[in-house]
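Thread: "does anyone have the structure for this chain?"

Original post by V.I.:
We have the sequence but no experimental structure in hand. Need at least a predicted one for the grant figures.
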Amino acid sequence: MDMYNTNSKRNKASFSIVIPYWNRFDLLSICIEHLRNQSRQDFEIILIDNGSERNPSTLLRSVNVATKYKRNLINRGFAIAANQGIEMASGEFILILNSDAFIESNYLDSAFNLFRLNPQTGMLAGRTLTYMDGRQLSKPYGGGHLLTKKFRKVSIKNLSKEQLVFSPEGGAQILRRSTLEDIRLYNGDLYDESYFSFGEDTDIFLRAHHRGWECLYSPTLSYWHAVSASLGGKADGFKKPLAFQYHTHKNRITTIIANLPTSVIIKIIVQLIVGEVGRFILYLSRRPTSLIPYIRAGIHTVVAFPQIIRKRRWILSRSKISPSNFTSLMK
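Reply from O.Q.:
Generated one for you, C-alpha cells below.
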C-alpha cells in the first residue's frame, strides 16, 4: 500500500476533497483540472486509488496543489476508500467527489459561504449537469434528492430555488467534518464499510438527519457528471454487473432496517412491499439472471440480521428527531 503527501507546506485547508477512483485516469485528470481552476484555493486533494491497473505517478507529478495519496492493492469498495480519505483529511469541510464529477470554478467558494450562513446545514446539494462524449452540457438533469415512501431517491423539480432536501446527488457529497464525526458508528465507521459500494450515501445521510442536521440545496453549486463512467457508462441497472446489483439490493435492505423507526416502517410497508414485488416481476420478465443477486441479497440480510439490528439500536438511541418529523423527510 503506497501513501505519501505532496506540497505539504501549504496552509491548512478549509476543504479536503477526497476522490476515490478505480482506473479511468482520463476522467480523473479532468476532475483535477477543474479543481485547479477553483476561485477558492484553500483546499487539499486526497486521492484514494482503489486497486487501479497502473500507477498514476505521471498524473500525480502534474498536480500542482496540495495532494495526499493512498493506493490500495485491490478494490476495497467506495465506503472503505472514502473513510480512508476522510481520516487523512485536515479540512473543516469534506467533499467526497467521484472521479467522473467536475465541479464549476465557484463551487468551493459558494459552498463555504452557504455553510457559514447556515450553521444547522450539515450537507449541501447542487445542480447536476451532464458530461457526455467529452462535452459539458449546460442543461441540468438533476439536483438535490428527495426520498420517496418507496425508498427511492428522486431529484427535485425546481432547480432554481434554494430549498431543504433529503440529500445531494451521489457524485459530489459535501459535508461538514463536525457532521461526519457526529454520525460516526459505534465501530468507528463513517461510511458503513459493510456496504462495499452503492447506497452507502443514503445510509450516511439518514444518520445525519437522525442527528438533526439539514441538507440545503442551492443552485449556486453546480457540477458535471459522467454518470456511471466507472461502470462503462451503464446507467441502466439491468446492464450493470451482477455484483453491482447485489450490493445495491443488499445495501437498500440494510439501510431500511437500520435507519427507519418502527412507526415509519409500518406507515410505508405497503409501498415497500409493492415496490419489491414489482421489482421481482420486472427482473423475472426482463432479465432473469438479475434474480440471482436479488436472492443473494435476501440471504445476506438473514445472515447479517444481528449486526443490522445492533446498528439500528445504535442509530435510533441517538436520534434527535421524532418519528413524525422523520416521516416528513419522505415525500
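V.I.: this helps a lot. Residues 2-231 form a domain with the Spore Coat Polysaccharide Biosynthesis Protein SpsA; Chain A fold (CATH 3.90.550.10).
O.Q.: and The first helix runs from residue 25 to 36.
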